[in-house]
From TrEMBL:
Keywords: Glycerol metabolism, RNA-binding, Transcription, Transcription regulation. GO terms for molecular function: RNA binding; transcription antitermination factor activity, RNA binding. It comes from the Bacteria. Transmembrane segments: none annotated. GO terms for biological process: glycerol metabolic process; positive regulation of DNA-templated transcription. Gene3D superfamilies: Aldolase class I (3.20.20.70). It comes from Paenibacillus algorifonticola. This is Glycerol uptake operon antiterminator regulatory protein. Regulates expression of the glpD operon. In the presence of glycerol 3-phosphate (G3P) causes antitermination of transcription of glpD at the inverted repeat of the leader region to enhance its transcription. Binds and stabilizes glpD leader mRNA.
Length: 188
C-alpha cells in the first residue's frame, strides 16, 4: 500500500524543482538539502499549497543534527516528519508526534546488522533504505522489522521503482523529476 496514496516521494534538489512541485498532485514531498535561513519561507510556501514536507534533519546547513535541533524543527518549523540517520532525532520526532523516518545506509552486512540494533531502539514509523535498488534487502528488512520501508538512493528508472515496490517498499524517494512526472501521470 502506497504512502498516503503516493508511490513516489519527490525529493527535489533545486529550488525551481521544489517550486514546480507546489502545483503537483503530490501531497508529500521530501526536503533534502537546505539552509536554516530558508526553512521558514519554504514551509510557508508548502503550507500555502497544502503540501506536507518530510524534512531531512541531517542535511540542514547551519543546524546541528542532534535532539536539540530536532526539537527546534518539531516546535518551530513543524514538518510532517523528520528523516535522519540519528536515533536521537528519530526519538525526538516521535515524542513530538511527527512521522519518524530512520534513514539507513546499507553498505555491507555489518552495517545491516548494526541497523537492526538501532531500529530495535528507535522504533521509527518508517525506514528509508539506501541504496533503494536492492529488492532482496528491502524485503529482508521489512520481514525482520515489520516497519514500512521507503527505498531511496540510486533509483533511476521506472523499473527500479517497480522492483522496490514489488519487494515491499511502501514508497520510493527520488530526486529524478522524470520519475515524478511518470508516476504523477499514472496515479490519476
Amino acid at each position: 500500500m502506497p504512502f498516503h496514496n503516493q508511490q513516489i516521494l519527490p525529493a527535489p534538489r533545486k529550488t525551481k524543482d521544489l517550486e514546480k512541485l507546489m502545483t503537483s498532485d503530490f501531497s508529500y514531498l521530501v526536503l533534502l538539502e537546505t539552509h536554516i535561513s530558508q526553512l521558514k519561507s519554504i514551509f510557508e510556501l508548502a503550507n500555502a499549497h497544502g503540501k506536507k514536507i518530510l524534512l531531512h534533519a541531517d542535511l540542514i546547513g547551519g543546524l546541528k543534527n542532534d535532539e536539540y535541533a530536532a526539537e527546534y524543527l518539531c516546535q518551530m518549523i513543524r514538518p510532517a516528519g523528520l528523516i535522519s540517520t540519528r536515533g536521537a532525532v528519530i526519538s525526538t520526532a516521535k515524542k513530538n508526534g511527527l512521522i519518524a523516518i530512520q534513514r539507513l545506509f546499507l553498505l555491507d552486512t555489518q552495517a545491516l546488522e548494526k541497523s537492526y540494533v538501532l531500529l530495535e531502539r528507535t522504533k521509527p514509523d518508517y525506514i528509508e533504505v539506501l541504496p533503494g535498488v536492492m529488492p532482496h534487502i528491502i524485503r529482508e528488512v521489512f520481514e525482520r522489522t515489520g516497519i514500512p520501508i521507503f527505498a531511496g538512493g540510486l533509483i533511476r528508472t521506472v523499473a527500479d521503482v517497480e522492483n522496490a515496490t514489488a519487494a515491499g517498499a511502501t514508497a520510493v524517494t527520488t530526486s529524478r523529476s522524470e520519475l515524478w512526472t511518470h508516476f504523477a501521470s499514472t496515479s490519476k
